[in-house]
Amino acid sequence: MTRVLPAETARRVLLVEDDPGDAFLVQELLFEVDPEVDLTIAGSLAEVLERELWAAADCILLDLNTPGTTGGLDSLRQLLRADPSAAVCVLTGLDDEHLGIAAVGIGAQDYLVKGKADGAVLIRAIRYAIERRRAEAGLVRLREEQLAAAESVRLERGLMPTPLLAGSGVAARTFYRSGRTRSVIGGDFFDAVRDPRGRVHAIVGDVCGHGPDEAALGALLRVSWRALVLAGVDESQVLPNLQEVLVSERHDARLFTTVCTVAIAPNGSDSSDGSDGAGGALVRLAGHPPPVLLGPPPRTGPPPVGLPLGIDSAATWQAAEMSLDAGWSLLLYTDGLIEGRGPVPDEPLWEEGLLRLLETHAATPLDELPGRLVELAEGFNGGPLADDVAILLLSGERLS
């Protein structure tokens, strides 16, 4: 049983004392100072443990020489084993004051010498004991929360992707910020990998909702997408397979996910279906904003937008070809970037505002561009963006 520490001034005191005269004296001293004290008297530690009297007490006054123990500190050790969070003040005789000091060393909050403590001293010792125990419990809870938060951060960082693009001639810059307080990842996700045939695949997605369940689902969808691509699943079948994963794993049948996928042909080769030749890309949209080709000028050339994943089991997602010239750069992002306030009062930034930003800041180095875009969007918004933001910036700097 776990003790709930009192929120207000303690009034429930348990006295463990086998001498009726000493018990009566303690009772009179307490009532003289605070008549509202709720005092329970137990004649032995065995009674306290058997009836779990400690659970209903804010503070325990414990005579170290109660019956049923071997004397010394044995009674205190037994009591603290039953309730490690107990606020205990031990009572000692004049000849046993050294035991009181030792008792504090093993977990008592204070010690009092019989015959030397009046009512005011007793009440003060009781209240101090409870406050110290409350402070200790608060520190323990804080430490536990810090450890749990650190573990959560390590876990979440482990779920963040590292693009697998070695040997592809494609470079990736990323930005990610969760809209949830004190969280590393949210429901948005991104990834980029090179498949066994040398084609580069990229994805950005957004699970509707902002809780930890949506964050976990987003991480699962990203990992599943990567597995499908690396397994060599045909590009046209990736989104249908991903929708099956979503439907089987979501905790709420109303959850849906928007997605943008891009498949970039290896330099100087054609895809198996011949639709995205050298320097070309296939783009598929499932209810998601289209990618931006940085230009100049920046442009989207949006392909047909299909339904988000999880809406219709029979949905299909038509691919559109996007031409990639030498030195191309392609920006994929989630709607958290554009749904905050823009430069026009009471209007979100939207895609049009993003294109204007990209044109205005065309000289920004690619390595700095994702963070700069978020900084500008937050400036318009007047503070942090409320939604998750995921940005994946791909470039073919080494393609001819």
TrEMBL record:
It holds the Pfam family Response_reg. Keywords: Hydrolase, Phosphoprotein. CDD domains: REC (cd00156). It comes from the Bacteria. Residues 12-129 form the Response regulatory domain. The keyword Phosphoprotein applies. InterPro entries: Bact_Sigma-Reg, CheY-like_superfamily, PPM-type-like_dom_sf, PPM-type_phosphatase-like_dom, Sig_transdc_resp-reg_receiver. It is an enzyme of class 3 (hydrolase). Its EC number is 3.1.3.16. SUPFAM superfamilies: CheY-like (SSF52172). GO terms for molecular function: protein serine/threonine phosphatase activity. The modification 4-aspartylphosphate is found at D63. PANTHER family: STAGE II SPORULATION PROTEIN E, STAGE II SPORULATION PROTEIN E-RELATED. This is PP2C family protein-serine/threonine phosphatase. It comes from Pseudonocardia benzenivorans. The lineage of its organism: Bacteria, Bacillati, Actinomycetota, Actinomycetes, Pseudonocardiales.
